[in-house]
Design brief:
Length: 124
């Protein structure tokens, strides 16, 4: 089992975001199992030809999202992210539902706004 990351230098998406998205997707799919030890920040930066700060930024975002966890000097590992990600998505969805209700939007308008945002985010 290995981490498979390709950074597209021609992409308009920032390298740290590409890295974050790759690791998150591989963790969600099981390609990187819970407990998989990730390379060090410096090691991965060197391997990908990125600045160490870029990798560190991606790791911080992944840790904030509950996808990875740092265990001090023992390293950085894939966490049991599914539950944490689902809880955060549910919390965000609840906050959104409350906000659109306060704004007086119809359910159809709220759904359309979510669909537009998802299309823009996923590039569909």
């Amino acid at each position: 089992m290995t981490l498979k990351i390709v950074i597209d230098t021609d992409s308009t998406t920032a390298p740290f975001e590409q890295l974050r998205a790759h690791v998150a997707a591989q963790a969600r799919s099981g390609a990187l199992p819970v407990g998989y030890r990730l390379p060090t920040v410096r090691g991965l930066a060197e391997e990908l030809g990125l600045a160490a700060n870029t990798v560190a930024k991606a790791y911080r975002a992944l840790e904030a999202d509950g996808v990875i966890e740092t265990r001090g000097r023992h390293g950085t590992f894939v966490a049991a992210a599914g539950d944490a990600a689902e809880r955060r998505a549910a919390t965000a969805a609840q906050a959104y539902a409350e906000q659109v209700h306060r704004l007086g939007l119809s359910r159809a308008d709220a759904d359309a706004a979510v669909e537009d945002a998802l299309r823009a985010t996923y590039g569909e």
